[in-house]
Amino acid sequence: MKIQWLGHSAFHIETTKAKILIDPFFSGNPSFDESTRKDAAAGLDYILLTHGHGDHVGDTIALAKETGATVVANADLAAWLGSRGVSALEMGNTGGTIHLKGFSTTFVNALHSSAQITEDGVSHSLGSANGLVLHFDDAPTLYHMGDTDIFSDMALIQELHQPDIGLVPIGDRFTMGGAVAALACQRYFKFGTVLPCHYGSFPIVDQTPDLFLAAMEPASTKVEVPAVGAVVTV
């Protein structure tokens, strides 16, 4: 499996059977490297969304229309995207699993909100915020936490899914900060590899993973901190 961090919470995942984007926030993302966009869209099969905030939905509508990729999202968010011209949709909700080409994705809890304000100034609730657990036919199980705080039922996610790879928000203010994120990883999970995210983009979130790295020491979990656009092979 190849995992490419595209800045903020955006990731490109590639296995032998599927090419996937998660939370493709490109336009307006201060940390996004525009030179990576073409490759990220090439041959794209799926776009997976954790929740409806603009810094996670990002370029989904344009990418879906450009590539024909299927968008996988919470039912309310999927319906909203459908009203904006996205035709290939797979909708689910918390606790549900969708079986796709070469993998399945399960919607799990996240402690966060999910809404957008449209051009007319109206705020639209877009369903629950979720984390996504991806079980692959040919690769380790991956858990993108979405935007969340720590919560004790993370223990159930570990028990039910036993994820090998964690994509973990650490930037504080809108999610758990580095020290709390490290506690979540160490208390509730048995990750083999962790990649921190949701930092280093906007000035009001933490700019470095230093607090997370310090709190993860000593730890048996391998922490990968790629530069934006770099690929980690797991």
TrEMBL record:
Species the sequence originates in: Ferranicluibacter rubi
UniProt GO molecular function: hydrolase activity
Keywords: Hydrolase
InterPro entries: Metallo-B-lactamas, RibonucZ/Hydroxyglut_hydro, UPF0173, UPF0173_UPF0282_UlaG_hydrolase
Protein name: UPF0173 metal-dependent hydrolase G8E10_05385
Annotated Metallo-beta-lactamase domain residues: 7-198
Similarity annotation: Belongs to the UPF0173 family.
Family matches, as HAMAP family: UPF0173
Keyword Hydrolase: yes
Keyword Plastid applies: no
Stored Gene3D superfamilies: Ribonuclease Z/Hydroxyacylglutathione hydrolase-like
NCBIfam families reported for this sequence: PRK00685.1
SMART domains listed in its UniProt record: Lactamase_B
